[in-house]
Input
Amino acid sequence: MLHYQRVLLFISVIFFVNNPLSSQSKLQGSVVKDKHQPLPGATVLLLNSKDSSLVKGLLSATDGNYFFEKIAPGSYILAASYSGYKQAYTPVITVAENESRIIDPLTLTEKSNTLEGVTVAARRPLFEQKIDRMVINVANNITAAGSTVLDVLERSPGVVVDRQNNSLSINGKSGVVVMINGRINHMPVTALVQMLAGMPSDNVEKVELITTPPANFDAEGNAGYINIVLKKNMQLGTNGSY
Output
């Protein structure tokens, strides 16, 4: 009996160590502008310090605060940006397992250029918060280049992708309905996740995370809707995954 209990204890320890969800490391801070005023709606990106690849992104809250949780141990850089302001970065941040860290405020300063001639070239931000949805502008964003749609969702705020069980959830709720160009996809969740894992993000214009669907949407999406809008100038041909 004692030997059996030791075996169970050993298996439990191994599972806890190898389970990626066991890491509860957290990072929190705030984004401010001049005179230390909170800057809501700023894009905050958690980047890998080795290659600057995107790990997770979100928008600062109404009080300027941001919060990253369930972070794997490692070295990161935080980047904050807002239209009309210079982008700001933190130094390299090393996060240990089960560590909670409060980062110094990221201060954004306004851009001020005096030129004889001005050419305005605007680029949509990666994340846009609208009344009923979060819009992820995948096209023309270098952070999404070379990845898949599932990778984009995995890095999006509030979205949890469980690759092991082939499931999607938004804000901790399952029952997500996936649409492509506004049409509901009725594939099983397992097949849907595999399809998104094989869909290049280069073919996608934007992804909409609809957490409060309008009245004309069906009530079957308990957690909300994910609408994948494909580019209209896709090349002719046939593609798929097996």
User: Anything to note?
Assistant: The helical segments are 2-18, 149-154, 189-197. Confidence is low (pLDDT under 50) at residues 2-22. The two ends are 48 Å apart (CA to CA). The first strand starts at residue 25 and ends at 32.
